[in-house]
Structures are given as structure tokens and as C-alpha cells.
Amino acid sequence: MEKLIITCAISGAEVTKEDNSFVPYTPKEMAIEAYFACQAGASVIHLHVREDDGTPTQDVARFEETIKQIRKLCPDVIIQPSTGGAVGMSNDERLQPINLVPEMCTLDCGSVNFGNDEVFINTENDIIYFAEKIYEKNILPELECFGKMHVDQVLRLYKKGIIKDHLHFSFVLGMVGGQAAQERDFVFLKESIPEHATYSVAGIGRHEFPLAELAIKHGGHVRVGLEDNIYLEKGVKAKGNADLVQKVVKIANLYKREIATPKDARKILKIKE
Ligand code: KMH
Ligand code: ZN
Questions:
Q1: C or N: which end of the chain has fewer Cβ atoms within 10 Å?
Q2: Ligand 1 centre from 263 Cα, in Å?
Q3: Which of these, 199, 182, 164, lies nearest to 5 by C-alpha position?
Q4: In sequence order, what are the residues at sequence separation of 6 or more whose Cβ sits closer than 8 angstroms to the Cβ of residue 231?
Q5: Nearest CA to ligand 1 atom 6
Q6: Ligand 1, atom 10: closest residue by C-alpha
Q7: Residue 14 CA, closest ligand 1 atom number
Q8: What is the pTM of this model?
Q9: What pLDDT is attached to residue 272?
């Protein structure tokens, strides 16, 4: 089986220090969390940035500073800025970090309820606009799909040549408002994508590790991190992102799945060095 790419979503836009005191906000805190996650086995850092008080921002200067700090400690890691940002941001606001031409970034492939009155809006025209801007800069998008209809949306745009190879999906499952994270949901999604595509799973909350185990067993890749889940186990908060990565490594060891280095990850994702 292919080596396992572990992506670590170290901060997100919604989770706060009140939820888990290890959630990083400042560029320095982000770099420290990224460093320990990489030491534990992460080869990709999924990155949101925050103001010092935790407010989510897509400000390009904040991304630049945060990436600079991360690079000092993790020179090789693949950095994947979010173009999702936070609910309510405009498209151009969300797209700012692509101006730094990272190797990867996210491309959110459909709209989804985000609890209470919030809707994370990604219309078809939004997705086309994001895709054009991302491919223009030769950045590999991680195709974030919160359910099967988002996968179908990708496949439609792939047929039209708007979304292009290499196809790397991220199935974000188990979110309130999104698709559930049962084994049948996972199987349905993984069987819906082309043979030559790769995929990663991100289980939200208590779904993080059961979904990770399924992906590890079936040859997929895994995302964990405080953005998605703040608990190491029921009632026990993670003491940082590295705790979550280490737990995935332990599961991978049980299945004899080797862990990808950043160099391995670039090869699997067809990112030119
Ligand atoms: N924070 C969500 C609104 C992404 O990173 O591309 C969007 C999100 C997806 O987290
Ligand atoms: Zn994100």
C-alpha cells in the first residue's frame, strides 16, 4: 500500500483556546504546533491564520508571516493554506493566500450548513472562479467535499476541464449539516472517485479516529488536528496537535502502513519538487 500522508489541521477558524488551550493563534504558536505535528509524522499542514485574539483572517501578510515562522522549524513540510477561511468571508478575501503560491491550498467543492444559521457558501460559479485562480498559479488543490454531492460537483467540473489532474479529494465527514461518517458513507465516497485519484479523510469530532482507521485500512490518507477535533479520547482533551498525529501513527503501525515524509507526499500527490 502507498505510504500514509498525514495532514494536520492545526488551528482552523472556529475552534478557540476556550475549547482547547492548545489551539494556536499567533505565527509563533502556529509554528510550534506545526513543528511538533511534523515531528510526530505529519507531512502536510492545513493552515488557517488568526489574529492574536483568535479572530480568523485571510490577510495575506498574516499568512506570509505564519508560513515564514513554520518554515524556520519545518523546512520541508507541505503547507496547505485554506481558501475556505471562515463563514461569511468574500471570495477574494478567501483567495488571498494563493498569492504566496503555496504548493497546495484547499478548494471547497460545494455549500454546506455549518450549524445554527450559518451556511458555508460555495456556488458552482464560486468553485469555477476559485479553480481558475488556483490552477493559474499551478497550485494543487485539495478538493474538500463535505458529502457525495460535492464529489459529483468535482466530477462534473473535471469532465469540463475546469478541475484538473492530479485529483486529491478530502472527504470531510461527520459535521453537523454535512454527510455522516459511517463506514457506508466512507465506502460510497471512495468508490465514487476515479481510480487514479487520491483521497484523504477528515472526521469531525468523535468521528476523527474511526474514519482515520477506515482510510488507513483501505489505502487512503488522513487528516487530523484541533480544527476538526479537540479530544484524544472521550473526555480527554488533546494536549496539542501532535497528540492527535501520534494516535494516527499508532493506528497506522497496527496496519503496517508506513508514514509518508514530505518528500513521499509530494511524489504521491504529483507535486513537482
Ligand atoms: N472554516 C470553514 C468555513 C477550508 O479550510 O477550506 C471552511 C474550512 C474549509 O475550514
Ligand atoms: Zn480548514
A1: C
A2: 26
A3: 199
A4: 205, 206, 237, 238
A5: 84
A6: 84
A7: 1
A8: 0.98
A9: 87
